[in-house]
Amino acid sequence: MHELPQQLVNGLLLGSMYGLVAIGYTMVYGIVQLINFAHGEIFMIGGFGGLSVWLLLPSGTSMLLALPLMIIGAIVIATLVAIGAERFAYRPLRNAPRLAPLITAIGLSLALQQAVWAWYPDAKSSVVFPQLPGGPFHLGSVTIQTGDVFLLIAAPVSMAFLGFFVQKTRTGRGMQATAQDPDTAKLMGINTDRIIMIAFALGAAFAAIGAVAYGLKYGEVQFKMGFLLGLKAFTAAVLGGIGNIYGAMIGGLVLGLAETLTTVYVSEIPGMQQLGGQSWGNTWAFVLLILVLLFRPQGLLGQRVADRA
Amino acid sequence: MTSTTTDITTKAATGDGIALPEKAARALATGGGALTVISCFLAWTWTAAYPGNLTVYGYPGGLQWLVLVSGALTTLFGLSSYGIKGLKWLTPGGADAAVKFAALATLWTTLFTAWSISDTLGGLVNLEPGGFVAVAAALATYLGARALPFERPVLDPADPEDSTWEQYKHNARNRREIVKAAYAAKAPAPAKPLPAWAEILVIAAVLGVALGVFTYGITTPYQELFIGFLITAGFGFAALHKAGLIARFTTLTARHRNVALVGAFVAAAAFPLTQTDDQYATLGVNILIFATVALGLNIVVGLTGLLDLGYVAFLGVGAYTAALVSGSPNSPFGVHLPFWAAILLGALASMVFGVLIGAPTLRLRGDYLAIVTLGFGEIFRISMNNMDGKSGPDITNGPNGIAGVPNVNLFGFDFGAAHTIAGFTIGRFANYFLLMLAITFIVVMVFRRSAESRIGRAWVAIREDETAAEAMGINGFRVKLIAFALGATLAGLAGAVQAHVNYTVTPDQYVFANAVPPNSAFLLAAVVLGGMGTISGPLVGGALLFLIPNKLQGMGDLQLFAFGVALIVLMRLRPEGIIPNRRNQLELHKDLEAPTVLSKAGA
Amino acid sequence: MTTTTTTTAAPAETVLDARGVTMRFGGLTAVKNVDLTVRSGEIVGLIGPNGAGKTTFFNCLTGLYIPTEGEVRYKGTVLPPKSFKVTSAGIARTFQNIRLFNNMTVLENVLVGRHTRTKEGLWSALLRLPGFHKEEAASREKAMELLEFIGLAHKAEHLARNLPYGEQRKLEIARALASDPGLILLDEPTAGMNPQETRAAEELIFAIRDKGIAVLVIEHDMRFIFNLCDRVACLVQGEKLIEGTAGEVQSDERVVAAYLGEPFEGAPGAEEVAEVEAAEAHAEEDHEAEAPADTPADDTPADDDTPAADSTTSTTTDGEAK
Predict the structure, then answer these.
(1) From CA C90, how far away is CA B311, in angstroms rounded?
(2) If phi over 0 gives left and psi between -120 and 50 gives alpha, with beta otherwise, what is residue C195?
(3) Among A107-121, A290-304, C3-17, which is the least confidently predicted range?
(4) d(C-alpha A78, C-alpha A45), whole Å
(5) A145 pLDDT exceeds 60?
(6) Is C159 within 8 Å of B586 when comparing Cβ atoms?
(7) Record's CDD domains (chain C) (predicted)?
(8) What's the pLDDT band for A43 if we cut at 50, 70, 90?
């Protein structure tokens, strides 16, 4: 199990999940310079949205039929919550001092997490998430668990869609313009309120896909899962260069790889036997964040210069 | 020309169209207050099953005392509004708004009591006639106060051609303006200076009362009384504020700063002496720890504008360090350093971590710091959990934590034992309360002295505009790092005491958010709620945020949810906190001087 | 209030000596090989059309940017590449869109300006060492003197944000003067002022010069600058077109052409202005990721190249921005 190719694949899979969530951080940050702490909770709510759809379907529904519906359910709920948060919590504070929206975000994050904990049936501990049938699949020496297959497909497809959206559609270009200079964008007739809302919604949608992937991968969802995952997704966004959408994905992959590889191999370094293993993975991810900030604060890809008009 | 519009909006604002002549309204409010006071001497219910024993004629009990205080306050302000000689000093800022808030205190405390009695005992039948008298009197007070005239703002009526939603929004805005005007008070005229000794006496008296109120709040034995206390204290404080008394007192304390500071600490030190057992002194120590840590955080957040979301981890570093070197049986080091060495080591360790975290991140934009500190807080907990000898090196005994931290022994004085000094018995927690008070004093002095110096000005300049501050020759990174490390050090100091107070240090005490303070989210909230950049703000905010979850066990499940919602609402409505800092006050003052369009339109 | 106020033309020491300053952002050259000297007791003006690179050049002088090529010397020593070190070396500046510390009092703003000339650190503040009160008192005295000088002493305890616009500009100058500079750089000191205020500003700048402080000023108002300055340099497309007395520059036809917008070797079009803006914004992020992102959007009518550099910082993080 400890061979390198297998670990690389595991790391990339984990990383692409981070990447999906990181997109939301990076997009919102790119446009309104706000760290949306509540994004981790949006991710979590997406997971419960998907689960709800499954629970509402008649039992015995084929997973292949249910999965698309679950994804849609997850996206719809996460997006609605994100839009509501933007409209009622963040927008009134757009010109407030910098600390105000950050504190609002913390409040929102707690409120969402606790709401699910208190009112979602049986959510006081982990809730079982349905599984895809079949698998695991073997490719040479590499094994891919059934739960990971979805991620393997969803992550590249999402990325391709996002790339198309940002580059080819009017709204996508409006987003770039708003990110560059909201005031000018407004003067040019771009509805910045709408653009900001779309950024929140898109980020939530990708987070929801990530959440379904999380459920399939780990076989469960919990009300707490947004906190740590959100933190790591943010790390991924910073790694890739915050504000840079492709960077978020790259950052996610690098972080996933780093976490997986340190988990497995750190304990083989003499003198560090006790610092390896699953329980230290998070710590190493954090150390990586500190190192990146120290040596390459603009992130791996950096922020790209705008295309000239 | 505005009469038509104001009439329309008046209806919208009051709804019930109370139209009383001013004299009648004033008399009703004042008399109602007096009647409420009298009603407190009646029996409100028939059984002593409701806590506080409200069944006795002639002697108020429990919640009745609170109603009595608010009723008396209303009456006093009411009488003062008649211009009665000897009472005028009560309302330098105008009496009417004060009467209104005092009446609100009376009404809500009474209503809450009545509701709570019938809820606990099952139905309104459990109220004795005295209870109904009290409710009626409180209602009369409120209606009288409500009908008092005030200066109505000039408002534009909604445009009938707008969409219904737009009209609704416009009317809602107008209604808010009216309510604001109804409760508005003018800034009090500057007081005639008294001789210095008299002013100091006043400060001492006020501090004495404050100690009384605070002790009452801490020692409320049951939840209903605490809620009643919050209602009365909240509206009562607003009434005092509107009457201009708070402003007067602030001027006094500003004139005799050191006296006020020493007085406040003497009053606080008197708290354990009022306690016969350790039950509430325990609460007192923990409040003090929490509030002190919040004050340390205020240097980082309030003065320098750095958002530290993992601050509780620095408390944890201090606590763990002190616990490890103080001879706990769980400590692998097996040393037992004296307390002064342990506390210094704790502070030092926190400072080292502060520098390690701050150095890479403080060069960057502020948002990065927020997320890195958040990560640090989480990683700290995880690492402490892991270092149990199985998942990692054997240092912290994992989730079970380091238990059996021995009591502090300072110069032969054993903090674990009860001592009798001058007739007062001071128990274990009272000892620690006094020790912690000394730490609080240090932190207050550090805050005050650093804020009022070159370095403090540099912090505020950085908070205001970092690029400009750098262009003024301030080494932003260095100055921020000093603030961050100083904040961490102060937390470490408090942590070292905390380890000894609680005997045990476990990883679960140091998380980002939890139903029990201290945790990073609550600490931040204490700073924001109290008022950023002030000394008293975080202390008051900290005390409130510690007491509320502690006393309202009934809320249980929804506590954190309510907390999150409260943060969002607070940022919308009052981002400057309960006690705004001097600068905001200056600004508000400026606002009051500015000419505003007002028209006199009495009821 | 005319050029006749020039002081005695004594052989003066060179205060500022910029040689071959070039600033490139990626492939774009915003400032090309500019030389400029300022001698003590001089008021030097820097003019140029939109996007000419005046503010970029200013930022090179004050350590906000590190010039790609060339060097800047202050009284013979090469300037360090950090803005706070430049200030402590003796160059102070103001900003085009006023950047006061809004929630501090007027006096505190000036006291912050004293920062580099005072030493008391944290320990001294905490322990109130003997030197503390002495230095604090000296700083206050000096600050009050400066407020007296600009005529704001009566408002010392007001919040900076509550001052009217003209007084805010003055306060910014006082704050810069508090660091005892040998050279002060003023970025459009009269932007948004009415004629009376402009005249008062002129007087103030002469008074500063009479204190022995050299002045380098960017300005759009031609009459103002030709009245004020001993020498004027004109920057076009990042290159120094001409430098000379007010009269020489005023009569130079290339300057006239550049200002009237006649094509001059392909005058900077909107496109190029936008390029410079984008590049500057980007560079600023690279150089000082720590810059706070709260510059108020500029709304002065005299639109120079600065609003771009400054206001875009606040907003640009240029997303994925392909």
Answers:
(1) 39
(2) alpha
(3) C3-17
(4) 6
(5) yes
(6) yes
(7) ABC_Mj1267_LivG_branched
(8) very high
Is B442 a residue whose pLDDT tops 70? Answer: yes
Return the domain boundaries, chain A: 19-226
Residue B424 makes CB contacts below 8 A (sequence gap 6+) with B273
- CA–CA separation, C110 and C122 (whole Å): 20
Q: Is B366 on the interface with C (CB under 8 A)?
A: yes
Higher confidence at residue A134 or residue C321? Answer: A134
Q: Class of C3-90+181-315 per CATH?
A: alpha beta
Q: Provide mean pLDDT across the span A12-20.
A: 92
Model confidence at B328, pLDDT cuts 50, 70, 90, reads: confident
Q: Using CB atoms, pick whichever of A101, A110, A282 lies closest to residue B564.
A: A110
Burial of residue A52 (number of CB atoms within 10 Å: 0-12, 13-18, 19+): middle
Our CA-based measurement puts residue A31 at a distance from the nearest CA of chain C, in whole angstroms, of 7
Residues of C whose CB is below 8 A from B366: 292
The CA–CA distances, whole Å, from B316 to A43, B333, B429, B549, C17 equal: 30, 18, 20, 21, 54
Q: Which of B360, B371, B560 sits opposite A114 (nearest CB)?
A: B560
Question: Any idea where the domains of chain B sit in the sequence?
Answer: 3-247+588-600, 279-550
First to last CA, chain B: 16
Q: How far apart are the CA of A252 and the nearest CA of chain B, in angstroms?
A: 16
DSSP C213-228: -EEEEE-S-HHHHHHH
Contact of C291 with B365, CB cutoff 8 Å: yes
Q: Residue C84: what residue type?
A: F
A146-168 and A245-265 helices, crossing angle to 10°? 150
* Residue pair C78/C141 in contact by the 8 Å Cβ criterion: no
Give the Cα-Cα-Cα angle A28, A35, B575 (nearest 5 degrees).
115
Distance separating alpha carbons of residues C203 and C197, to the nearest angstrom: 10
Task: Kindly provide the ipTM of the predicted complex, given to two decimals.
Answer: 0.85
DSSP 8-state symbol, A89: I
Subunit contact C292:B590, Cβ cutoff 8 A: no
Does domain B279-550 sit in CATH 1.10.3470? yes
Long-range contacts of A163-168 (CB under 8 A, 24+ apart): A163/A245, A163/A246, A165/A202, A166/A245, A166/C319, A166/C320, A166/C322, A167/C322
Quick one: tokens of B475?
A: 């080494």
Return the H-helix or E-strand segment holding C43. strand C43-47
Q: Report the alpha-carbon distance of residue A34 to residue C291 in Å, rounded.
A: 15
Q: Report the residue from C92, C159, C179 with minimal CB separation from B587.
A: C159
Best CA proximity match to B287, nearest among B183, B215, B340, B208: B215
The Cα A261–Cα A6 span in angstroms is 10
Q: How many CA atoms lie within 13 A of B147 on its CB side?
A: 21
The residue ranges of every structural domain in chain C are 3-90+181-315, 100-179
The residues, ordered by sequence, that sit 6+ positions from B92 with a Cβ below 8 Å of its Cβ are B188, B189, B191, B243, B244, B245, B247, B248
Spatial separation of the C-alpha atoms in residues B512 and B117, rounded to whole Å: 38
Q: Which chains touch C (3 or more CB pairs under 8 A)?
A: A, B
For chain C, report the end-to-end CA distance as a whole number of angstroms.
53
What mean pLDDT do residues A3-31 have? 89
Measured in degrees and rounded to the nearest 5, phi and psi for residue A126 equal: -60, 145
